[in-house]
From TrEMBL:
Pfam families per UniProt: DUF2470
InterPro entries, alphabetized: DUF2470
Keywords: Membrane, Transmembrane, Transmembrane helix
Protein's UniProt name: DUF2470 domain containing protein
Length: 175
């Protein structure tokens, strides 16, 4: 009698899955590296400082993403004294299941790295300034998708402000 349950994975199946996963990651790697190096230098530095597997990672001045694989991100670091350290592993925060997870993992690691480094590091690195910019971009994108709702909210807000201003100015002042 045939069973509908899947067959248990053998060691060969696991090797094939890892090989396929590695191939998928390598297809995405050039695009991910270009994007991260161009747009997320602060995140790469935070990854190195918080999670870099090198004794001098805590002295990182800047970091460049040079590779990624099933283990994690591979960075070249420039230290505060100007020396460089190559091929520093920053392991993913969880086991990667597919190349499509790279974005979610990078975002989660960004949050975890900055949390680990603390408030003073966030202030020094411009974390909060960048966060406000991103909020503005997301608000703009949301407003662009829903122009009628956005105009309604803006109009009601302006009416409320005008009413409050008018009411405030009509209130007699005490002498």
């Amino acid at each position: 009698m045939a069973s509908n349950s899947p067959l248990p994975l053998t060691d060969d199946d696991a090797v094939v899955d890892i090989v396929q996963l590695e191939a998928d990651i390598q297809k995405s790697a050039p695009r991910v590296m270009k994007h991260m190096n161009a747009d997320h230098a602060a995140s790469l530095k935070a990854y190195a400082l918080a999670f870099g597997e090198h004794p001098d990672a805590s002295k990182t001045q800047s970091a460049t993403l040079t590779g990624l694989d099933v283990e994690g991100f591979w960075l070249d670091l420039t230290l505060e004294d100007g020396t460089t350290v190559s091929n520093v592993l920053v392991p993913y925060d969880r086991r990667i299941q597919s190349a499509k997870e790279l974005h979610a993992i990078a975002v989660d690691m960004h949050t975890a790295a900055f949390a680990k480094l603390g408030v003073f590091y966030k202030i020094q690195s411009g974390f909060y300034t960048q966060a406000f910019k991103m909020m503005g971009v997301q608000t703009y994108k949301s407003a662009k998708k829903r122009p009628f709702q956005t105009m309604t909210v803006v109009t009601l807000t302006l009416f409320a402000m005008a009413y409050s201003y008018r009411s405030y100015n009509k209130t007699p002042t005490r002498r």
